[in-house]
């Protein structure tokens, strides 16, 4: 009966009741959002839950038992997470746009510049080279690089900074020669 009355109060605009309902179902929201594997999943489920509280027809509950309310809300959250899964995970279709103007764009590095960059990178120690390639060519974050290489995030940052310093020195040496 307690949940039914909380729903009644929440529908009439009582913020405290809405917050209490949210905290009662927050663990279920978190669990379902973790299974969706996209950043805004918890936010989307929370918004859907709050809209559900505002719009639910309380006449659906014949007896005002907590079990009936809990089952109904949990079923709603599960169904909503399935909808979000379909929308965000299954609905995402990677596509490639072919733009002919790119074929003639001179800002795209030529084969000579790629060879130059890889020759320059080959002067670095292996760790610095791997970190710089993963960071700037493959766009990994420091945390992802650390995980891949089995080192700390600070070690990644240190290797990146040392590698950039070594590349600067090599470029300056090339300019002088």
TrEMBL record:
<dbReference type="GO" id="GO:0003677">
    <property type="term" value="F:DNA binding"/>
</dbReference>
<dbReference type="InterPro" id="IPR036388">
    <property type="entry name" value="WH-like_DNA-bd_sf"/>
</dbReference>
<dbReference type="InterPro" id="IPR013249">
    <property type="entry name" value="RNA_pol_sigma70_r4_t2"/>
</dbReference>
<dbReference type="GO" id="GO:0006352">
    <property type="term" value="P:DNA-templated transcription initiation"/>
</dbReference>
<dbReference type="Pfam" id="PF08281">
    <property type="entry name" value="Sigma70_r4_2"/>
</dbReference>
<keyword id="KW-0731">Sigma factor</keyword>
<protein>
    <submittedName>
        <fullName>Bacteriocin UviA</fullName>
    </submittedName>
</protein>
<dbReference type="InterPro" id="IPR013324">
    <property type="entry name" value="RNA_pol_sigma_r3/r4-like"/>
</dbReference>
<keyword id="KW-0805">Transcription regulation</keyword>
<keyword id="KW-0238">DNA-binding</keyword>
<dbReference type="InterPro" id="IPR039425">
    <property type="entry name" value="RNA_pol_sigma-70-like"/>
</dbReference>
<dbReference type="GO" id="GO:0016987">
    <property type="term" value="F:sigma factor activity"/>
</dbReference>
<feature type="domain" description="RNA polymerase sigma factor 70 region 4 type 2">
    <location>
        <begin position="118"/>
        <end position="167"/>
    </location>
</feature>
<keyword id="KW-0804">Transcription</keyword>
């Amino acid at each position: 009966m307690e949940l039914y009355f909380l729903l009644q109060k929440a529908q009439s605009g009582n913020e405290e009741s809405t917050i209490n309902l949210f905290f009662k179902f927050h663990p279920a929201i978190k669990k379902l959002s973790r299974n969706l594997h996209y950043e805004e999943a918890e936010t989307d489920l929370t918004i859907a839950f709050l809209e559900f509280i505002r719009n639910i027809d309380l006449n659906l509950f014949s007896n005002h038992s907590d079990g009936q309310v809990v089952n109904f809300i949990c079923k709603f959250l599960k169904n909503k997470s399935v909808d979000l899964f379909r929308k965000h995970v299954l609905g995402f279709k990677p596509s490639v746009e072919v733009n002919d103007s790119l074929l003639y764009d001179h800002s795209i590095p030529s084969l000579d510049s790629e060879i130059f960059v890889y020759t320059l990178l080959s002067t670095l120690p292996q760790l610095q080279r791997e970190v710089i390639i993963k960071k700037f060519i493959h766009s990994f974050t420091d945390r992802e690089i650390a995980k891949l290489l089995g080192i700390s995030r600070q070690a990644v940052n240190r290797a990146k900074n040392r590698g950039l310093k070594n590349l600067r020195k090599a470029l300056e040496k090339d300019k002088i020669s």
